[in-house]
Amino acid sequence: TYAPKLILLDISDINCIQDVAKEILNCYGCVDILINNASMKVKGAVQSISLELDKKIMDANYFGPITLTKAILPNMISRRTGQIVLINSIQGKIGMPFRAAYAASKHAAVGFFDCLRAEMEEFDISVSTVNPTFICSYHRQPAPGNWEASIWK
After folding, report:
1. What would the pLDDT profile of 32-64 be if each residue is shown by its tens digit?
2. Which of 2, 62, 102, 138 is catalytic?
3. What is the value of pTM for the model shown?
4. Rounded Cα distance, 85 and 113, in Å
5. Is 2 among the catalytic positions?
6. Where are the domains of the chain?
7. According to the CATH classification, is domain 32-133 in 3.40.50.720?
8. Contact 56, 40 (CB under 8 A)
9. How many angstroms separate the CA atoms of 55 and 116, rounded?
10. Has keyword Signal (predicted)?
Protein backbone atom coordinates (compact mmCIF):
# COMPACT_ATOMS: atom_id res chain seq x y z
CA THR A 1 0.00 0.00 0.00
CA TYR A 2 1.28 3.43 -0.92
CA ALA A 3 0.53 6.69 0.80
CA PRO A 4 -1.34 9.13 -1.46
CA LYS A 5 0.77 11.74 -3.15
CA LEU A 6 -0.61 14.96 -4.61
CA ILE A 7 1.00 15.93 -7.89
CA LEU A 8 -0.26 19.09 -9.54
CA LEU A 9 -0.52 19.10 -13.32
CA ASP A 10 -1.84 21.64 -15.77
CA ILE A 11 -2.88 19.27 -18.56
CA SER A 12 -2.78 22.13 -21.08
CA ASP A 13 0.94 22.68 -20.37
CA ILE A 14 2.34 20.01 -22.66
CA ASN A 15 5.94 20.78 -21.67
CA CYS A 16 5.54 19.66 -18.04
CA ILE A 17 3.59 16.44 -18.62
CA GLN A 18 6.63 14.27 -19.33
CA ASP A 19 8.28 15.36 -16.06
CA VAL A 20 5.11 14.67 -14.08
CA ALA A 21 4.82 11.20 -15.62
CA LYS A 22 8.45 10.47 -14.67
CA GLU A 23 7.77 11.65 -11.13
CA ILE A 24 4.76 9.34 -10.84
CA LEU A 25 6.63 6.35 -12.25
CA ASN A 26 9.65 7.04 -10.02
CA CYS A 27 7.41 7.24 -6.96
CA TYR A 28 5.19 4.21 -7.60
CA GLY A 29 7.01 2.19 -10.25
CA CYS A 30 3.95 1.80 -12.46
CA VAL A 31 0.49 3.05 -13.27
CA ASP A 32 -2.23 0.41 -13.34
CA ILE A 33 -5.10 2.70 -14.36
CA LEU A 34 -4.78 6.06 -16.08
CA ILE A 35 -7.98 8.13 -16.08
CA ASN A 36 -7.79 11.19 -18.33
CA ASN A 37 -10.48 13.47 -16.91
CA ALA A 38 -9.32 17.05 -17.44
CA SER A 39 -11.08 19.38 -19.83
CA MET A 40 -11.52 22.97 -20.93
CA LYS A 41 -14.41 24.37 -22.88
CA VAL A 42 -15.51 27.68 -24.27
CA LYS A 43 -18.85 28.74 -25.66
CA GLY A 44 -19.02 31.16 -28.56
CA ALA A 45 -19.54 31.61 -32.26
CA VAL A 46 -16.73 30.34 -34.47
CA GLN A 47 -15.94 33.83 -35.75
CA SER A 48 -15.66 35.23 -32.21
CA ILE A 49 -13.24 32.61 -30.84
CA SER A 50 -9.59 33.38 -31.57
CA LEU A 51 -7.23 30.85 -33.08
CA GLU A 52 -5.15 31.23 -29.91
CA LEU A 53 -8.09 30.03 -27.82
CA ASP A 54 -8.81 27.20 -30.28
CA LYS A 55 -5.21 26.02 -29.74
CA LYS A 56 -5.48 26.28 -25.95
CA ILE A 57 -8.65 24.15 -25.98
CA MET A 58 -6.94 21.62 -28.27
CA ASP A 59 -3.89 21.49 -25.97
CA ALA A 60 -6.02 20.76 -22.90
CA ASN A 61 -8.54 18.37 -24.44
CA TYR A 62 -6.46 16.54 -27.04
CA PHE A 63 -2.71 17.01 -26.72
CA GLY A 64 -2.76 16.89 -22.91
CA PRO A 65 -4.40 13.48 -22.58
CA ILE A 66 -2.45 11.91 -25.44
CA THR A 67 0.86 13.31 -24.13
CA LEU A 68 0.22 11.89 -20.66
CA THR A 69 -0.96 8.59 -22.14
CA LYS A 70 2.13 8.31 -24.34
CA ALA A 71 4.35 9.02 -21.32
CA ILE A 72 2.75 6.24 -19.25
CA LEU A 73 2.16 3.75 -22.07
CA PRO A 74 5.70 2.26 -22.38
CA ASN A 75 5.51 1.15 -18.74
CA MET A 76 2.14 -0.52 -19.33
CA ILE A 77 3.36 -2.18 -22.52
CA SER A 78 6.47 -3.56 -20.80
CA ARG A 79 4.28 -5.03 -18.05
CA ARG A 80 1.63 -6.14 -20.59
CA THR A 81 -1.16 -4.83 -18.39
CA GLY A 82 -3.03 -1.64 -17.66
CA GLN A 83 -6.17 0.31 -18.27
CA ILE A 84 -6.51 3.72 -19.90
CA VAL A 85 -9.75 5.65 -19.62
CA LEU A 86 -10.70 8.85 -21.41
CA ILE A 87 -13.56 10.79 -19.86
CA ASN A 88 -14.63 12.74 -22.92
CA SER A 89 -17.99 14.21 -23.94
CA ILE A 90 -20.99 13.46 -26.10
CA GLN A 91 -19.71 16.40 -28.13
CA GLY A 92 -16.91 14.11 -29.23
CA LYS A 93 -19.57 12.27 -31.19
CA ILE A 94 -21.92 15.08 -32.30
CA GLY A 95 -21.30 18.77 -32.91
CA MET A 96 -23.29 21.54 -31.25
CA PRO A 97 -23.65 25.20 -32.19
CA PHE A 98 -21.30 27.58 -30.40
CA ARG A 99 -18.97 24.81 -29.26
CA ALA A 100 -16.78 24.24 -32.33
CA ALA A 101 -13.37 24.33 -30.61
CA TYR A 102 -14.54 22.09 -27.78
CA ALA A 103 -16.30 19.60 -30.08
CA ALA A 104 -13.32 19.47 -32.45
CA SER A 105 -10.92 18.69 -29.59
CA LYS A 106 -13.25 16.00 -28.25
CA HIS A 107 -13.70 14.45 -31.73
CA ALA A 108 -9.92 14.30 -32.10
CA ALA A 109 -9.52 12.63 -28.71
CA VAL A 110 -12.15 9.99 -29.57
CA GLY A 111 -10.33 9.21 -32.82
CA PHE A 112 -6.97 8.86 -31.09
CA PHE A 113 -8.23 6.64 -28.27
CA ASP A 114 -10.27 4.47 -30.68
CA CYS A 115 -7.07 3.77 -32.63
CA LEU A 116 -5.10 3.24 -29.43
CA ARG A 117 -7.68 0.68 -28.25
CA ALA A 118 -7.09 -1.42 -31.37
CA GLU A 119 -3.30 -1.16 -31.07
CA MET A 120 -3.17 -2.07 -27.36
CA GLU A 121 -5.25 -5.22 -27.63
CA GLU A 122 -2.17 -7.34 -28.28
CA PHE A 123 -0.61 -6.06 -25.03
CA ASP A 124 -3.72 -6.77 -22.91
CA ILE A 125 -4.11 -3.06 -22.19
CA SER A 126 -7.71 -1.93 -22.01
CA VAL A 127 -8.63 1.46 -23.49
CA SER A 128 -12.07 2.91 -22.75
CA THR A 129 -13.79 6.13 -23.76
CA VAL A 130 -16.67 7.51 -21.70
CA ASN A 131 -18.84 10.13 -23.42
CA PRO A 132 -21.27 11.62 -20.88
CA THR A 133 -23.89 14.15 -21.84
CA PHE A 134 -23.80 17.67 -20.44
CA ILE A 135 -22.31 18.11 -16.99
CA CYS A 136 -22.15 21.07 -14.66
CA SER A 137 -18.62 22.53 -14.59
CA TYR A 138 -16.92 25.31 -12.74
CA HIS A 139 -17.24 28.58 -14.63
CA ARG A 140 -16.22 32.19 -14.09
CA GLN A 141 -18.00 35.05 -15.80
CA PRO A 142 -15.50 36.82 -18.05
CA ALA A 143 -14.63 40.47 -17.84
CA PRO A 144 -15.19 42.29 -21.15
CA GLY A 145 -12.34 41.50 -23.55
CA ASN A 146 -10.93 38.76 -21.30
CA TRP A 147 -11.35 35.56 -23.34
CA GLU A 148 -9.29 33.50 -20.92
CA ALA A 149 -11.86 34.01 -18.19
CA SER A 150 -14.54 32.58 -20.50
CA ILE A 151 -12.91 29.17 -20.37
CA TRP A 152 -14.78 26.48 -18.46
CA LYS A 153 -12.44 24.29 -16.44
Report:
1. 999 999 888 888 999 999 999 999 999 999 999
2. 102
3. 0.83
4. 9
5. no
6. 32-133
7. yes
8. yes
9. 23
10. yes
